[in-house]
Amino acid sequence: MARAIPRDRLRRLVEVATSVFIEQGFRQTKMDDVAETLGVAKGTLYLYVESKEALFDLVCRSADRPFEEPAELPVKSPPTGATIKYIAERLAAGQVMPALGEALAGRKRPARDELGAIVGDIYDALSRNRVGMKLVDRSARDIPELGKIWFGGARGVLVDALSHYLTDRTKEGRFRPMLDVKIAARFIVETCAFWAVHRHWDAARQDLPEERVRSAVIDLVAAALIEPANSGPAKPRKGTER
Q1: What percent of the chain is helix, strand and coil (3-state, nearest 5)?
Q2: 22-49, pLDDT tens digit by residue?
Q3: CA–CA distance, 123 with 212 (Å, rounded to integer)
Q4: pLDDT of amino acid 236
Q5: 93: exposed, middle or buried (Cβ count in 10 Å: 0-12, 13-18, 19+)
Q6: Which residues contact 128 (CB under 8 A, 6 or more apart)?
Q7: Taking Cα atoms as reference points, which of 55, 200, 83, 104 lies closest to residue 149?
Q8: Is the omega angle on the peptide bond into residue 98 within 30 degrees of 0, that is, cis?
Q9: Packing angle between helix 130-139 and helix 82-94, nearest 10 degrees?
Q10: pTM: predicted TM-score of the whole model, two decimal places
């Protein structure tokens, strides 16, 4: 008689493997580590997944999504490049930032409202995909193909778009003069990334209401970039024209 496989254990396996991959990265994670954390024999894992590559692919596809049972067990190892292709598509979908797109297209709003909407979109996109983002960030150094799309692609596209936006608004006198718009753009992205994603795995994290954190991030970025209302139009500093 074929051995019965408790399907609810697969959901738990995905949860445990997600934590282990985030903690150790792809290269350092061993199937023994996952089995020990789950509390089963290593051989039991192979009733559910064919390999570590299959497990990583399943974890990536399950991140920030309602769990769906695979049609067949064990889950097969993905074809070469399939996991990277899926991650690239997920990252591209997450790059849709409506407020930034509207601003770059020429639609203008009051500076505080416009910047707040842009930062809010970035924060929300990262927050919605925080588990997947953390997985990719942790393993990007282990998988060269993943590193290329993470360090050289996804984040770079957003920083470049923000840089164009900041340059335009600074020239118009709506933002404070900046010594380097690239640094300012990266500051916005990394600030959102820490509070929306990384703080949830921070050893000293505080359990703060998400909306409170989001509002504080928007307020702090706005305070850093927008001139006080009574200061008059901003005048670009020498050497900051781009």
Answers
A1: 65, 0, 35
A2: 999 999 999 999 999 999 999 999 999 9
A3: 12
A4: 45
A5: exposed
A6: 64, 94
A7: 83
A8: no
A9: 130
A10: 0.88
DSSP conformation class of 151: I
Contact 142, 83 (CB under 8 A): no
E strand segments, the chain: none
**Paired residues of 75 in beta bridges:** 49
To which residue do tokens 């300012």 refer? Answer: 184
State pLDDT tens for residues 160-205: 999 999 999 999 999 999 889 999 999 999 999 999 999 999 988 7
- Tokens 């192979």 correspond to 46
Q: Specify whether the CB–CB gap between 79 and 94 falls below 8 A.
A: no
Give the tens place of pLDDT for each residue, 154-169.
778 899 999 999 999 9
Instruction: Tell me the one-letter amino acid at 200.
Output: H
* Alpha-carbon span 173 to 175, nearest angstrom: 6
Rounded CA separation 89/111 (Å): 32
Other beta carbons less than 10 A from residue 39's beta carbon: 9
